[in-house]
Request: fold
Amino acid sequence: MSVAIDTTTRNAPRWGGFSGRFLGIELKRTFRNSSVIIFTLIFPIVMLFLVALPNKNFSTSSTPVAQGGISAAVPIMISMAVYGAMMASTMTGVSVASERAQGWSRQLRLTPLNPVVYILVKVFCGLVLGAIAVIVTLIIGAAIGIKAPIGNLIGAGLLAWITSISMTSLGLAIGYAFPAQNAMRYLGPILPILSFLGGLFFPLYLLPQAVQDAAKFTPVWGIANLAQSAIVGAAPDVWAVPNLLAWFAIFTGLAILMFRRDTKRV
Reply:
């Protein structure tokens, strides 16, 4: 004999179903992903030793490093911190692809958890891992003798961390758009290419002017310009913030569109 359930007496959970336990589960899942740890923590550190350290004694200006000039390794250090934070945010977002394949996303849809809360928890996990990537990279950089004014260092580190949130939206869009076996395959070349075009791996001022102008329309350029300017104590390009906000809106819109398309299948 079946018993009817009176749904009028049931109340929706507070905070859209958010709980500290669910957040803890997601954080554990994030830190158990070895590929995420390798690319967000180990890769930037390796690049510090391979690229930044050999340039430690070269100055970015006519003032020698020994006389107070800023080392050429300093912009490289913050660029690696930015890359680590972006990788953390992007890979945290794209992890939804494997969760969809394993049935975890479908299981969550059977709970009172609000989809917006689910996405916000993903963003928070990306920020946590991104903060660790930035802090570890800057600490290792200081340990090997790459020094910058503490105010510049803190400001650039915060910018590297906060601005990387836009890449979580990119990861979510890719994670909801493609199957698990293809999502990482597409992400693999996308982020390095965008980083190169944005000036993280190579100084844009060494490239032709047409390339420098075109770079201002790429997603990573605004993030890189803000952090690199802050670390050397210079004013960022006037188009850096509009670039960041525009691409954040584009990636977020794509993530929402792909999410809605995915939920229609259930």
Residues 115-143 form the longest helix (29 residues). The chain has a mean pLDDT of 83.
